[in-house]
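Sample 3 of the quickstart, ligand beta-D-fucofuranose:
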Amino acid sequence: DSSSGSDSGSGGGGKKITLGFAQVGSESGWRTANTKSVKAAAKEAGYTLKFSDAQQKQENQISAIRSYIAQKVNVIAFSPVVVTGWDAVLKEAKTAKIPVILTDRSIETSDDSLYVSFIGSDFTDEGRRAARMLEKVLAKAGHKGAVKIAQLEGTTGAAPAIERAKGFKEVMDAEHKDDWKVVVSQTGDFTRAGGKQVMAAFLQSNPDINVLYAHNDDMALGAIQSIEAAGKKPGKDILIVSVDGVKDGFVAMSEGKINAIVECNPLLGPQLMDLVKKVNDGETVERRIKTEEGDFMQDEAKAALPDRKY
Ligand code: GYE
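Result:
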């Protein structure tokens, strides 16, 4: 290929790039699609990919990153399960001169030099968009009176859980203080099983809930099972807004069981591989790369379903 002849040691050039990718886990449909996208794009780009699944445990991700450092990969990318506690291992990567890219989720650190770029969605904005979708859903349902919201939070300490709650609350506090109230809020760990279990408990303690805001589709799908088991109609007795837009979410929406979905795109692979190449070549890259997304109401679900890519 045309890039040959520029081999400059570990800097890349004609050499095959080795990328170490430390994935969060396989907790949701979103994650499955994200993993597929990363693997396919690495293959397409001709990189050697070292991939690990941390099963939603930070200590597993830290060991995976350490092993990538020991193996002297060219670039490390990872999707941090929680926001805090990364400085030590990222300093080790820095000392070893291995650039780190954050994908999907962000971290909290006082040292900005510990990663070169962060590619992924704006979760606070997704929270705001979820509140805006709820406004539309309530108007469409002709809902009158108190809005008693149950919130299924994502993994405790994870950026999407913190920020999706924050963005939603921002709109609620600013514009709906008198009529909306989050009456129960708990983590369902972004899983179907978690959503099902926590929703069952919510319905026991607060049988008058009339809205569910779920931080992802999988928890909404689990919750739907508990709502039905309690003899209620999801999408009618309990209006549901969730985030992601995975296929199963769209199916439930086309069946009238979810009222609106805020899209969060997991197909980050191709953009990530471009970024890896630039970083490996020593180019300066954008510090923050945001993904473009849409919002969907129930009446758009059927038409959109055949075109869903994940
Ligand atoms: O929304 C959820 C997944 O970090 C954006 O993680 C991601 C979230 C996604 O488990 O389904």
